[in-house]
From TrEMBL:
One of its GO terms (molecular function) is ferrous iron transmembrane transporter activity. Coiled coil: none annotated. It is a multi-pass membrane protein. It comes from Chitinivorax tropicus. It is found in: Membrane. This is High-affinity iron transporter. Keywords: Membrane, Transmembrane, Transmembrane helix. Belongs to the oxidase-dependent Fe transporter (OFeT) (TC 9.A.10.1) family.
Length: 267
Protein backbone atom coordinates (compact mmCIF):
# COMPACT_ATOMS: atom_id res chain seq x y z
CA UNK A 1 0.00 0.00 0.00
CA UNK A 2 2.92 2.34 0.79
CA UNK A 3 4.36 1.83 -2.70
CA UNK A 4 1.01 2.64 -4.30
CA UNK A 5 0.76 5.81 -2.21
CA UNK A 6 4.26 6.86 -3.27
CA UNK A 7 3.45 6.28 -6.95
CA UNK A 8 0.22 8.30 -6.82
CA UNK A 9 1.98 11.10 -4.91
CA UNK A 10 4.94 11.29 -7.30
CA UNK A 11 3.02 10.98 -10.58
CA UNK A 12 0.28 13.38 -9.46
CA UNK A 13 2.85 16.00 -8.44
CA UNK A 14 4.54 15.61 -11.84
CA UNK A 15 1.20 15.98 -13.65
CA UNK A 16 0.43 19.07 -11.54
CA UNK A 17 3.79 20.51 -12.57
CA UNK A 18 2.89 20.12 -16.26
CA UNK A 19 -0.59 21.61 -15.80
CA UNK A 20 0.86 24.41 -13.63
CA UNK A 21 3.38 25.38 -16.34
CA UNK A 22 0.68 25.46 -19.02
CA UNK A 23 -1.76 27.36 -16.80
CA UNK A 24 0.85 30.02 -15.90
CA UNK A 25 1.81 30.40 -19.57
CA UNK A 26 -1.81 30.87 -20.67
CA UNK A 27 -2.38 33.48 -17.94
CA UNK A 28 0.44 35.57 -19.44
CA UNK A 29 -1.02 35.55 -22.97
CA UNK A 30 -3.43 38.32 -24.11
CA UNK A 31 -5.82 35.72 -25.56
CA UNK A 32 -4.93 33.06 -23.00
CA UNK A 33 -8.40 33.00 -21.45
CA UNK A 34 -9.68 31.43 -24.67
CA UNK A 35 -7.34 28.49 -24.16
CA UNK A 36 -8.31 27.77 -20.55
CA UNK A 37 -11.24 25.55 -21.40
CA UNK A 38 -9.01 23.63 -23.84
CA UNK A 39 -6.42 23.27 -21.06
CA UNK A 40 -8.98 21.74 -18.68
CA UNK A 41 -10.46 19.75 -21.57
CA UNK A 42 -6.99 18.29 -22.20
CA UNK A 43 -6.62 17.44 -18.50
CA UNK A 44 -10.00 15.67 -18.55
CA UNK A 45 -9.05 13.78 -21.73
CA UNK A 46 -5.74 12.66 -20.17
CA UNK A 47 -7.45 11.42 -17.00
CA UNK A 48 -10.12 9.74 -19.18
CA UNK A 49 -7.35 7.90 -21.05
CA UNK A 50 -6.09 6.52 -17.74
CA UNK A 51 -9.60 5.44 -16.69
CA UNK A 52 -10.07 3.58 -20.00
CA UNK A 53 -6.72 1.84 -19.47
CA UNK A 54 -7.69 0.89 -15.89
CA UNK A 55 -11.06 -0.48 -17.11
CA UNK A 56 -9.32 -2.56 -19.80
CA UNK A 57 -6.96 -4.04 -17.20
CA UNK A 58 -9.80 -4.89 -14.83
CA UNK A 59 -11.69 -6.43 -17.76
CA UNK A 60 -8.65 -8.55 -18.62
CA UNK A 61 -8.63 -9.90 -15.04
CA UNK A 62 -12.19 -11.19 -15.49
CA UNK A 63 -11.54 -12.66 -18.92
CA UNK A 64 -8.19 -14.44 -18.47
CA UNK A 65 -7.77 -17.96 -17.07
CA UNK A 66 -5.63 -18.50 -13.95
CA UNK A 67 -2.55 -19.53 -15.97
CA UNK A 68 -2.98 -16.70 -18.47
CA UNK A 69 -3.40 -14.29 -15.56
CA UNK A 70 0.01 -15.32 -14.21
CA UNK A 71 1.62 -14.53 -17.58
CA UNK A 72 -0.31 -11.26 -17.83
CA UNK A 73 0.87 -10.21 -14.36
CA UNK A 74 4.46 -11.09 -15.27
CA UNK A 75 4.12 -8.91 -18.38
CA UNK A 76 2.65 -5.99 -16.43
CA UNK A 77 5.29 -6.15 -13.69
CA UNK A 78 8.03 -6.15 -16.34
CA UNK A 79 6.41 -3.31 -18.31
CA UNK A 80 5.99 -1.26 -15.12
CA UNK A 81 9.68 -1.70 -14.23
CA UNK A 82 10.83 -0.77 -17.75
CA UNK A 83 8.49 2.25 -17.81
CA UNK A 84 9.90 3.51 -14.51
CA UNK A 85 13.45 3.17 -15.86
CA UNK A 86 12.48 4.99 -19.07
CA UNK A 87 10.70 7.74 -17.12
CA UNK A 88 13.70 8.38 -14.84
CA UNK A 89 16.03 8.59 -17.85
CA UNK A 90 13.55 10.82 -19.76
CA UNK A 91 13.27 13.24 -16.83
CA UNK A 92 17.07 13.35 -16.53
CA UNK A 93 17.31 14.18 -20.24
CA UNK A 94 14.37 16.60 -20.56
CA UNK A 95 13.65 17.83 -17.01
CA UNK A 96 15.67 21.03 -17.39
CA UNK A 97 13.97 21.97 -20.68
CA UNK A 98 10.47 20.65 -19.88
CA UNK A 99 9.02 24.12 -19.23
CA UNK A 100 10.54 25.62 -22.39
CA UNK A 101 9.47 22.68 -24.60
CA UNK A 102 5.88 22.79 -23.36
CA UNK A 103 5.65 26.56 -23.84
CA UNK A 104 7.13 26.36 -27.35
CA UNK A 105 4.54 23.76 -28.32
CA UNK A 106 1.73 25.95 -26.98
CA UNK A 107 3.13 29.08 -28.66
CA UNK A 108 3.04 27.38 -32.06
CA UNK A 109 -0.59 26.36 -31.49
CA UNK A 110 -1.52 29.85 -30.29
CA UNK A 111 0.03 31.53 -33.35
CA UNK A 112 -2.15 29.41 -35.62
CA UNK A 113 -5.16 29.61 -33.25
CA UNK A 114 -5.07 25.83 -33.12
CA UNK A 115 -6.85 25.33 -29.80
CA UNK A 116 -7.56 21.67 -30.52
CA UNK A 117 -3.85 21.17 -31.07
CA UNK A 118 -3.29 22.70 -27.63
CA UNK A 119 -5.87 20.35 -26.14
CA UNK A 120 -4.02 17.42 -27.72
CA UNK A 121 -0.68 18.57 -26.26
CA UNK A 122 -2.23 18.83 -22.79
CA UNK A 123 -4.07 15.50 -23.11
CA UNK A 124 -0.89 13.70 -24.16
CA UNK A 125 1.15 15.30 -21.36
CA UNK A 126 -1.40 14.50 -18.65
CA UNK A 127 -2.39 11.17 -20.23
CA UNK A 128 1.22 10.01 -20.17
CA UNK A 129 1.48 10.59 -16.43
CA UNK A 130 -1.96 9.10 -15.75
CA UNK A 131 -1.38 6.00 -17.89
CA UNK A 132 2.00 5.41 -16.24
CA UNK A 133 0.31 5.63 -12.84
CA UNK A 134 -2.22 2.94 -13.80
CA UNK A 135 0.51 0.57 -15.06
CA UNK A 136 2.70 1.18 -12.01
CA UNK A 137 -0.21 0.60 -9.62
CA UNK A 138 -1.03 -2.65 -11.35
CA UNK A 139 2.66 -3.62 -11.11
CA UNK A 140 2.68 -3.19 -7.32
CA UNK A 141 -0.62 -5.05 -6.95
CA UNK A 142 -3.06 -2.28 -5.97
CA UNK A 143 -5.80 -3.97 -8.04
CA UNK A 144 -5.83 -6.74 -5.41
CA UNK A 145 -7.11 -4.31 -2.77
CA UNK A 146 -10.77 -3.49 -2.18
CA UNK A 147 -12.39 -0.56 -3.99
CA UNK A 148 -12.68 1.39 -0.72
CA UNK A 149 -8.97 0.91 0.08
CA UNK A 150 -8.00 1.85 -3.48
CA UNK A 151 -10.05 5.06 -3.41
CA UNK A 152 -8.61 5.90 0.02
CA UNK A 153 -5.03 5.52 -1.24
CA UNK A 154 -5.79 7.59 -4.36
CA UNK A 155 -7.38 10.37 -2.25
CA UNK A 156 -4.43 10.49 0.19
CA UNK A 157 -1.93 10.42 -2.68
CA UNK A 158 -3.66 13.32 -4.45
CA UNK A 159 -3.81 15.29 -1.20
CA UNK A 160 -0.08 14.75 -0.53
CA UNK A 161 0.72 15.72 -4.13
CA UNK A 162 -1.34 18.91 -3.81
CA UNK A 163 0.48 19.88 -0.59
CA UNK A 164 3.85 19.07 -2.18
CA UNK A 165 3.04 21.12 -5.28
CA UNK A 166 1.95 24.06 -3.10
CA UNK A 167 5.20 23.89 -1.09
CA UNK A 168 7.26 23.71 -4.27
CA UNK A 169 5.42 26.67 -5.78
CA UNK A 170 6.07 28.73 -2.62
CA UNK A 171 9.68 29.22 -3.56
CA UNK A 172 11.50 26.06 -2.56
CA UNK A 173 12.99 27.30 0.71
CA UNK A 174 12.40 23.91 2.33
CA UNK A 175 11.73 21.84 -0.77
CA UNK A 176 12.95 22.53 -4.32
CA UNK A 177 11.87 20.85 -7.55
CA UNK A 178 15.45 19.56 -7.94
CA UNK A 179 15.41 17.93 -4.49
CA UNK A 180 11.91 16.53 -5.14
CA UNK A 181 12.98 14.88 -8.40
CA UNK A 182 16.30 13.59 -6.98
CA UNK A 183 14.70 11.93 -3.92
CA UNK A 184 11.70 10.54 -5.81
CA UNK A 185 14.03 9.38 -8.62
CA UNK A 186 16.02 7.24 -6.16
CA UNK A 187 12.81 5.75 -4.72
CA UNK A 188 11.52 5.02 -8.23
CA UNK A 189 14.76 3.26 -9.15
CA UNK A 190 14.52 1.14 -5.97
CA UNK A 191 10.90 0.33 -6.84
CA UNK A 192 11.84 -0.66 -10.42
CA UNK A 193 14.52 -2.97 -8.97
CA UNK A 194 11.89 -4.52 -6.68
CA UNK A 195 9.55 -5.10 -9.62
CA UNK A 196 12.32 -6.74 -11.65
CA UNK A 197 13.12 -9.07 -8.73
CA UNK A 198 9.41 -9.97 -8.65
CA UNK A 199 9.50 -10.64 -12.42
CA UNK A 200 12.67 -12.76 -12.09
CA UNK A 201 11.04 -14.86 -9.35
CA UNK A 202 7.93 -15.39 -11.52
CA UNK A 203 10.19 -16.53 -14.40
CA UNK A 204 11.93 -18.91 -12.00
CA UNK A 205 8.53 -20.34 -10.97
CA UNK A 206 7.65 -20.84 -14.66
CA UNK A 207 10.95 -22.72 -15.12
CA UNK A 208 12.24 -20.08 -17.57
CA UNK A 209 15.08 -19.06 -15.25
CA UNK A 210 17.25 -21.56 -13.30
CA UNK A 211 17.78 -20.62 -9.64
CA UNK A 212 21.51 -21.65 -9.82
CA UNK A 213 22.01 -21.49 -6.02
CA UNK A 214 18.91 -21.18 -3.82
CA UNK A 215 19.27 -19.57 -1.36
CA UNK A 216 22.59 -17.73 -1.47
CA UNK A 217 22.19 -16.55 2.15
CA UNK A 218 19.66 -16.35 4.98
CA UNK A 219 19.28 -12.89 6.53
CA UNK A 220 15.83 -13.48 8.02
CA UNK A 221 17.25 -13.04 11.53
CA UNK A 222 18.13 -9.43 10.63
CA UNK A 223 15.06 -8.63 8.49
CA UNK A 224 12.40 -11.21 7.64
CA UNK A 225 10.63 -10.28 4.38
CA UNK A 226 7.49 -12.16 5.50
CA UNK A 227 6.80 -9.56 8.24
CA UNK A 228 4.88 -6.34 7.49
CA UNK A 229 7.96 -4.10 7.67
CA UNK A 230 10.10 -6.62 5.79
CA UNK A 231 7.47 -7.06 3.08
CA UNK A 232 7.24 -3.29 2.57
CA UNK A 233 11.03 -2.99 2.19
CA UNK A 234 11.10 -6.08 -0.06
CA UNK A 235 8.44 -4.61 -2.38
CA UNK A 236 10.09 -1.20 -2.46
CA UNK A 237 13.72 -2.29 -2.87
CA UNK A 238 13.78 -5.91 -4.06
CA UNK A 239 15.31 -7.12 -0.78
CA UNK A 240 15.00 -10.84 -0.12
CA UNK A 241 15.93 -12.72 3.06
CA UNK A 242 16.58 -15.91 1.02
CA UNK A 243 17.59 -14.78 -2.50
CA UNK A 244 18.34 -17.21 -5.31
CA UNK A 245 21.59 -16.54 -7.18
CA UNK A 246 19.84 -15.92 -10.52
CA UNK A 247 17.57 -13.30 -8.92
CA UNK A 248 20.57 -11.69 -7.25
CA UNK A 249 22.42 -11.56 -10.59
CA UNK A 250 19.38 -9.99 -12.29
CA UNK A 251 19.24 -7.34 -9.55
CA UNK A 252 22.95 -6.52 -9.84
CA UNK A 253 22.68 -6.39 -13.65
CA UNK A 254 19.80 -3.92 -13.33
CA UNK A 255 21.77 -1.52 -11.13
CA UNK A 256 24.87 -1.76 -13.32
CA UNK A 257 22.75 -1.04 -16.41
CA UNK A 258 21.03 1.95 -14.76
CA UNK A 259 24.37 3.32 -13.53
CA UNK A 260 25.75 3.16 -17.09
CA UNK A 261 22.64 4.66 -18.71
CA UNK A 262 22.46 7.52 -16.21
CA UNK A 263 26.14 8.33 -16.68
CA UNK A 264 25.59 8.49 -20.45
CA UNK A 265 22.46 10.64 -20.00
CA UNK A 266 24.35 13.14 -17.82
CA UNK A 267 27.04 13.78 -20.47
Amino acid sequence: MGNALFIIWRESAEAMLVVGILYAWLKRQPDGHKGMRYLWGGVAAGVGLALVLAALMLGMMQWLSADSMEYFQLGMVTVAALLIMQMVLWMRRHGRTLKRDLEQGLQQNLETANWWGMLTVVALAVGRESAETVVFLYGVGLEQQSLASTLQVIAIGLLLASVTFWLLQKGGRWLSWQAFFRVSELLLLLLAGGLLVNAAEKMMNFGWLPPLIDPVWDSSALLDDSTSAGNFIATLTGYRAHPALSVLLAYLTYWLAMWGLMRRTNR
